[in-house]
Amino acid sequence: MSAPTSAPSNAGTTSVASTLPELIVLFNSTWATLGAWTSSIPGSQVAWRYIKASHQDDPFRTVLELLLVFFIVRTYAQSRTKGEQSGKNFVKLTEKEIDELVHEWQPEALLPPAPRTTQYPPVIIGATGPRPRVVFPTPGQDPHDPLQPYDVTTGANQGKVVLNLASSNFAGLAGNERIKDKAVACLKRYGVGSCGPPGFYGTFDVHMELERDIAAFLSVPSVIMYSHSFSTISSVIPSFSKRGDIIVADRGVNFAIQKGIQISRSNIRWYDHGDYEALERILEQIHKEDKKYKRKVTNGRRFIITEGIFENDGSMVDLPKVMELKHKYKYRLILDETWSFGVVGKTGRGVTEVFDIPTAEVDMLVGSMANGLSSTGGFCAGNKEVVAHQRINSPGFVFSAALPPLLAVSASEAISMLSIPANMTSPAHPLAPLPDNVAALRKILASVKPIEIPSAEMSPLIHICIRDDDKLYSKPLTREEQEKLLQDVVEQCAENGVLVTRSKRNWAQEMMEHRPSLRICVTAALTKKEIEKAGNMLKSALNKVLAGKKK
């Protein structure tokens, strides 16, 4: 019985034994063919040696790499329309259900709704000036809605003439006929724009003339001109101060200076706003650290950065004290006169003229042609080496289009009007009425108890803050509450024919906390009676709005 059953088993064994050598021969021939084929590929021998050495040192790694290759091949080869194959498990909706879902769907807003303090901005019809015609929107109207734009031609929205205390037209040169004639003549000759950066083909003769005019006006060796006021100081700082350098800066500096300091990546030391004893303590502390760590003053660059008139509160720098500390501790000074050049001083030369300090002693003096000259752009004044360095290293100069020629001519003409050989007591000088206008407005505001003014006495940039007094309010006002009250004052003044504005800040990016305030720009273009009228309207609005908030 056993013989018949064992015969098939022997036959199967014989069959396997006969095919096994054939498989081995096939494998060897295939391997030899692959080896011959791959050997013809450049660099294959290096790859094979790497694989053999890798397998010999770490066999597990070979297995892992094979699995990885298999995964890549499988991922590449698999179908990408798998969702359609499994669609049988999806819930099938009727057309009616789809329509209902579409009707109920509400898209999320791309941006949060704008707060009331930023809504309903007034629109000036025509050119700005001391007495512009302004359109105020009706509540709920969006000036940026293309379907419901402001109607500036007919009906009640034709606008009304207001006294402008919002524009930085301190010298009253905006709309000046003499400047307009020069600008029109330049427009006919050069066209509208410069069509290129200064380092290539954007520089015209009028640009070089403006730089010479400003240099002569300030009595400095050289000046470089920028096409945008904000980017001037934010480019000057990082073009000189780099990683490892030291910057000592006032906490009250404006947003453009903050950005420049941030871009520089320097070591920053802040001193309290307007506290020059704190400034000296910081400089002395750095001096002690130099001795402790045996650092040489010449190993890195060191700067003191401050403003002439501070944009955030209108206060003025104690320039003689800063100059004393600068020389004592061997620092360079970067002075931002964006809000003081063309504004203060007997002839508008800024805080250096106020304190009778030669401008050449300031290492880098930055100014704006927008506030003092009613043009646009900015400049940096200093010695020839300082200016030459910026022409190839300052991003705001190298990578920006040059100032339009007509605006350069306008600034040059404004400089010539400020350069007349007379002081501010002469009626011919554009700034002559400004001190009296500032004094008249401050005299009226001095009787308003719920407010305080941190601005300097001579500053035409006046900030009005709500007084932080427990006797006036049941609890301290939040920043949002203060801004709402100040916006109410702005709207109340607008109803009475006076245009004022709040200080608008990007709170999310401000490096320092500043108090909400009204920003008043006193102009020399209004008469003293007009300033007194505007001041009384502002006083009435402040008393009316803030009285309702008292406890």
What does this structure look like?
This protein has 551 residues and is of the alpha/beta class. The protein has three domains: 111-161, no CATH class; 177-418, Aspartate Aminotransferase, domain 2 (3-Layer(aba) Sandwich); 449-547, Aspartate Aminotransferase, domain 1. The chain is 44% helix and 11% strand. The chain is built from 18 helices and 16 strands. The protein has helices at residues 2-39, 44-57, 59-77, 82-85, 95-104, 177-190, 205-218, 229-240, 255-264, 276-292, 319-329, 351-354, 384-393, 395-398, 405-418, 434-445, 479-495, 528-547, and strands at residues 123-125, 133-135, 160-161, 163-164, 222-226, 246-250, 267-271, 302-307, 332-337, 364-368, 378-382, 451-452, 461-466, 498-499, 501-502, 518-521. The chain has a seven-stranded mixed sheet, sandwiched between helices. Strands 12-13-16-15 form a four-stranded antiparallel sheet, covered by helices on one side. Strands 1-2-3 form a three-stranded antiparallel sheet, with no helix packed on it. Helix 7 runs parallel beside helix 15 (405-418). The chain is extended, with a radius of gyration of 37 Å. The relative contact order is 0.11. Residues 1-9 have low confidence and may be disordered. It comes from Microbotryum lychnidis-dioicae (strain p1A1 Lamole / MvSl-1064) (Anther smut fungus). Belongs to the class-II pyridoxal-phosphate-dependent aminotransferase family. This is serine C-palmitoyltransferase. Residues 162-534 form the Aminotransferase class I/classII large domain. Keywords: Acyltransferase, Lipid metabolism, Pyridoxal phosphate, Sphingolipid metabolism, Transferase.
